Amino acid sequence: MKKKISIISSAFNEQENVWELYKQVKAEMAKYADKYDYEQVVLDNASTDGTLEELRKIAAQDTHFKVIANARNFGHIRSPYYGILQCSGDAVIYMASDLQDPPALIGQFLAKWEDGFKVVLAQKTQSKESVLFFAVRRFYYCLLNLLNDSGAQLPANCTGFGLYDKGVVEELRRLNDPYPYLRGLVCELGYKRALVPFVQPTRKRGFTKNNFYTLYDNAMIGFTNHSKVPLRLAAMGGFVLGGISLALAFVYLILKLLFWNKFPMGTAPILLGVLFFSSVQLFFIGIIGEYIGAILTQVLKRPLVIEKERINFK
């Protein structure tokens, strides 16, 4: 009996890419038709262009192609994760719908999986995006692993593009995380993992949906899920700054008593001191707020996604 492979992508306003994505995935899976059956699932995140209409056309001509339409845009974190959980294959391959995650890597994923690896992650060794942007990403992963105290080493420049065994997916279902950091979560579970290096191509059609907020959101989820170091730095920083402030106050008091006329009480030092310590306080309050927000998300337990309809699901 053939093993079943599920290939899932999340799409938002990718009208220009979904047909090419479908063709490339179909061509790759045709190479392994003797070994694997497959389904290709695209989860439409309430696109405002003609993406859903194009997906309907593809589904009408190919029963291997399935569509989940969201009731609204549930974001770049929840929707892809939800899509993975809806797949029924012996292995699930997640890739972005913009073709910057090349379907040509499917064969390498399957080979690693057959070798016994439960998680196979694509790792960007180079990217045709801006050099500065790629350098910032590399710095983020270095910093995350430096501060990581969860015990799980997170591979750099892995975005979640890769293959996950059905056992891993079942474990993700049991976790029931309402706002997951997928690439870190699968590493923390400890399954046998392989990396497949690749060069990320540039986007040829449409526009990227990533912006400063989405990248910041991803970064902060990584920190709050895998490190308590920022909170401890806040506590230690407050202790150290408090000690320095007290010491400086004593020094100034002694100098003032010894040299009364040479140390006039100006307002500039006071204002600068207040500004500095206020900035430090706001910075650490912001860090604490991120952790509180993460806790609130977990406590509320809202559903990952609400569906509007399904196409080609039995």
Q: Give the overall silhouette.
A: elongated
Q: Which bin fits the share of residues in helices?
A: 40-55%
Total helices: the number is 10
Major sheet: 8 strands, mixed
Structural class: alpha/beta
Radius of gyration, in Å, reads 25 Å
Order the strands across the largest sheet as they lie in space. 7-5-6-4-1-2-3-8
Overall residue-averaged pLDDT value: 82
Beta-strand fraction estimate: 15-25%
Sequence stretches where pLDDT stays below 50 over 5 or more residues:
none
Q: Give the distance, in angstroms, between the N- and C-terminal Cα atoms.
A: 20 Å
Number of E strands? 8
Q: What sequence of helices (H) and strands (E) makes up the elements?
A: EHEHEHEHEHEHHEHHHE
Write a concise keyword list for the protein shown above.
single chain, alpha/beta, 10 helices
What does this structure look like?
This protein has 314 residues and is an alpha/beta fold. Helices cover 50% and strands 17% of the residues. The chain is built from 10 helices and 8 strands. An 8-stranded mixed sheet has the order 7-5-6-4-1-2-3-8. The protein is elongated and about 90 Å long. The relative contact order is 0.14.
Write the layout of secondary structure elements.
Blueprint: E1 3-11, H1 18-30, E2 36-44, H2 51-61, E3 65-70, H3 75-85, E4 91-94, H4 106-114, E5 119-127, H5 131-147, E6 162-165, H6 166-175, H7 182-189, E7 193-200, H8 212-226, H9 229-258, H10 267-300, E8 307-311
Parallel strand pairs: 1-2, 1-4, 2-3, 5-7
Antiparallel strand pairs: 3-8, 4-6, 5-6
Helix pairs in contact: 9-10
